[in-house]
Amino acid sequence: MSLTPTxxxxxxxxxxxxxxxQWCQWIAVLFMVFIVIFVLCYFAKEFSRCxxxxxxxxxSRDETKxxxxxxxxxxxxPDKGPSMPEPDANGITLQPLANRTGRSNRxxxxxxxxxxxxxxxxxxxxxxxxxxxxxxxxSNLNRVTRGSVTGVVGSFRVPTITRPSNGRAAYxxxxxxxxxxxxxxVQQIGIESDWDPVHNRPTYYAWTExxxxxxxxxxxxxxxxxxxxxxxxxxxxSVTGQFRSVxxxxxxxxxxxxxxxxxxxxxxxxxxxxxxxxxxxENGILPLAPYGTITWxxxxxxxxxxxxxxxxxxxxxxKLSMVNSSNHVISQCNSIGVNSQTFSxxxx
Length: 348
Prior knowledge:
The protein has about 350 residues and is mainly β. It folds into 2 domains: about 55-85, no CATH class; about 95-345, Jelly Rolls (Sandwich), CATH 2.60.120. About 10% of the residues lie in helices and about 35% in strands. It has helices spanning about 20-55, 60-65, 100; strands at about 75, 80, 95, 110-115, 125-130, 130-140, 150-155, 170-180, 185-195, 200-210, 215-220, 230-235, 240-250, 255, 275-280, 295-305, 305-310, 315-325, 330-335, 345. The strands form 2 sheets. The chain has an 18-stranded mixed sheet that branches. A two-stranded antiparallel sheet has the order 1-2. The radius of gyration is 36 Å and the shape is elongated.
């Protein structure tokens, strides 16, 4: 039988299937496992954040707490600085002085120009300063006798500030403290009396400073011109540099003790006691406000464990008057009283 074209059998070609290498399969599996782990970690992290927002974990305040030494429980915020204490029973508290003035420091160590101190115990020498006017006492004021002064106290009335002749801002700080006469630290507390040219009136506030730490304003303490204040600074622990700083408005019978964590200065020399009227310092000495006369009373110090008046047979003292850049006296320290606990300073 002959075959016709239609009878010819069709030929078939089979294409073999592509085989994926085994190592590629393992890579794909590992990639999928990685994706799963990543997704699980992401949702776990989001869940944790939600719990933190609901307060299940520590607060941000705990995260910013400094590691502090004894009596230094300071909560530090990177933006706001040391946290301030809650108001006391009289509504008095602290705030950074920079909040009021824009300046972190109110005072500066004594700037000496002409001072000769007698080495004779019980003597009073005279000198001048560019920013201090008042009395200084110490065991030996010609050199730093570290640890010799452990306490100082004094009283004065808030001065009545009058308008400066040029009508501009002017400043006056009256304070009691330890150090600064012949070294670079000051532990002080007092009253600031300034002339405000914007409102054409005086302003008053209390402050404390453990220089070079930033100064603090004492907020809520009643202050009026002619109010009688008693202020004191006492070393309570020479090892930790702990002090006690107290200010009392005797007229209104209101007292405030600065919390201990703000009265630490481990570098304090404790070499001199001061009762001072000061022209504050900020990039230079600020103009002294016309303050009239400030009378200081009940001034005592503890020097070498001897408690006594400004002039004492166990130590010596310096009477400082403030001079301007032309060496003219602008604040005169007057003679000390008969009981050695009283003197006055007068604006010239």
